[in-house]
Amino acid sequence: MAYNDTESERQKKFAMSLSLGVGIGMFFLKFVAYALTNSTAILSDAAESIVHVIAVGFATYSLHISTKPADEEHHYGHAKVSFMSAGFEGAMIIIAALFIIYETVERLISGLSIQNLGTGLWLTSAALMINGALGTYLIWVGKRKKSLILEANGKHVLTDAWTSFGVVLGVGLAWYTGWNYFDPICAILLALHILLSGFKLVRQSINGLLDTADPEIDKILNDTLAKAKADFDIDYHRVRHMSTGDGFRVELHLLFPDELSIKEAHRQATEIEKRIETAIEPPTLVTTHLEPIRDHEEHHR
Questions:
Q1: 17 touches 152 (CB < 8 A)
Q2: Cβ contact 180:112 at 8 Å
Q3: Does the 215-300 domain belong in CATH 3.30.70.1350?
Q4: Does 2-209 carry CATH code 1.20.1510.10?
Q5: Blockwise average pLDDT, block size 10, the chain, 301 residues
């Protein structure tokens, strides 16, 4: 088990290092494209890359913190830093979108001057394909390893890829038709798309930090406990759960018949815990509190 955990952390760190390295490469590629073309759409793509590099740097540090085990000051570990990382990345995306809108409006007022659109088109197309592959990979690893940090970073990279797609479309239309206003129109539409993506990440971060209940987990718990109630002739209440950033913690009270021995009640509780952990998928930690069905409300007064 220790080997698998170490291997899992190694895969997470490799994916994040790959994201950082590719992000730096895309930053230079897009700014070369902007320098050659003076395109506001390509500038918007390049600005998003700056934010991406900063955000990945923070996410890399957060991933390092999240893998630290529980200690005397952090009894539940450090995985919740992933929600802070997602919020920071979302905030950076929002800042990038606002910068793009500001810069595009300023260019519209001062006048457009675009050149070498063909070269910029090819360079941006290359960035689109690379980021599309990278973002898909990061989300895949994040979901497999239950890492919100990697998943958020993957969504950010895919946002970057969609931005590049919009740039290719806008620059391509401007190049083909000769009507340069396709370029700023595309930049503003992309900024609005990026803005929405940023707000979604910030909301996800806030929900995690406030321990907002997950409807899917609620349904799994209700279905699993309903079956356990029928199988073991028990009841339950005070069910709650929270995301730790890399898994879930579940707490509930199980109500057993008074005549049942402590040994048998514990055995049944352990079986129910295993059912929940299997249904939600690891890593999930389930804590149960055993009570008698008769007059159990007296124990909560």
A1: no
A2: yes
A3: yes
A4: yes
A5: 56 79 83 78 72 76 73 71 78 80 75 64 82 86 75 77 75 75 77 82 82 85 91 89 81 89 91 90 82 69 56
